[in-house]
TrEMBL record:
Annotated stretches, region: Disordered: 19-45
Sorted UniProt keywords: Oxidoreductase
Name of protein: Uncharacterized protein
Keyword Oxidoreductase: yes
Pfam families referenced in this protein's UniProt entry, alphabetically: adh_short, adh_short_C2
Parts of the chain that traverse the membrane: none
Bias (Low complexity) ranges: 23-45
Length: 257
């Protein structure tokens, strides 16, 4: 596929997603009558997520767990997703959300790095609460190899987990995401860019010396923590951020400016 083709296809995809989430915009707003949708209502929007339903992929620990708890604390009902480490950690996150309130939560096992796994999470949310408002595509892999060592298997696994599965999960979710819906992607360089965060994913394979060096690159003199990331995701998911779209948000404590 040519670069231009790829780029126009992804532009079409983005515009289709936006069209679905903002049905009152552009071509779909045939009527000249002013819209009375919440998007156009000039009242101060809330940061509450009361009544909203959210999926956070990869949320049994680390950044995803902190996000799931932050969304629950803001009032959302949350699907807490895990893949391999048994239901224990995910159930702890679910209990923490239910105990703290006001949101509710369920645990769901699925490989969010597969198309079928992503779809099953959407179906679980809708089966439990009858709607879906927010998807945080947090599950991802971040292998580290110099280009000379990168093989097709390494490349394909990253594309499958970080690009293909999230995209088809969103495609399946579009039928449920209505106006005001939120799709929040995660990465180290695009969309929701966290910078180094102290989790197993970050620490694995790095000598302490390297971790210390990276920590000192931050003006705060430390790595980020999952709790540094989560509140901003809850904000972006809330009605108060309704005018925020298509941003690459760097939540990294000044690691890069
Ligand atoms: N940490 C950093 O420095 C950093 C920097 C930039 C970007 N990020 C991005 O932030 C996101 C979260 O990173 P993290 O550091 O919190 O990761 P982590 O410590 O490795 O935690 C991963 C979480 O995701 C779950 N998970 C992993 N693969 C999954 C899959 N295929 N399907 C469903 N759940 C899955 C794990 O569940 P199990 O326990 O069941 O395996 C666990 O709950 C990733 O997308 C990562 O690329 C992280």
């Amino acid at each position: 596929m040519s670069k231009t083709n790829k780029s126009s296809k992804s532009q079409n995809l983005v515009s289709n997603i936006l069209h679905t989430l903002r049905p009152n915009s552009k071509a779909s707003s045939k009527s000249s009558k002013a819209s009375t949708s919440p998007t156009n209502t000039p009242t101060m929007a809330t940061t509450s997520l009361a009544g909203k339903v959210a999926i956070v992929t990869g949320s049994s620990r680390s950044i995803g767990a902190a996000i799931a708890k932050a969304l629950g604390a803001a009032g959302a009902n949350v699907v807490v997703n895990y893949v391999s480490n048994g239901a224990g950690a995910a159930n702890e996150v679910v209990s923490a959300i239910k105990t703290a309130g006001p949101g509710d939560a369920i645990a769901a096992q699925a490989d969010a790095g597969t198309v079928a796994g992503g779809k099953s999470l959407v179906d679980a949310a809708v089966a439990k609460w009858g709607r879906l408002d927010i998807i945080v595509l947090n599950a991802g892999i971040m292998g580290s190899k110099v280009i000379a060592d990168v093989d097709e298997e390494f490349f394909d696994s990253h594309m499958q987990t970080n690009v293909k599965a999230p995209l088809f999960t969103v495609k399946h979710a579009l039928q449920h995401l209505k106006e005001g819906g939120r799709i929040i992607f995660f990465s180290s360089s695009l969309t929701y860019a966290t910078g180094p965060v102290d989790t197993p994913l970050f620490r694995t394979g790095k000598p302490q010396q390297v971790i210390d060096f990276i920590s000192k690159q931050n003006p705060n003199g430390r790595l980020g923590l999952p709790e540094d990331i989560a509140p901003t995701v809850a904000f972006v998911a809330s009605p108060a951020a309704q005018w925020l779209n298509g941003q690459n948000i760097r939540v990294n404590g000044g690691f890069t400016v």
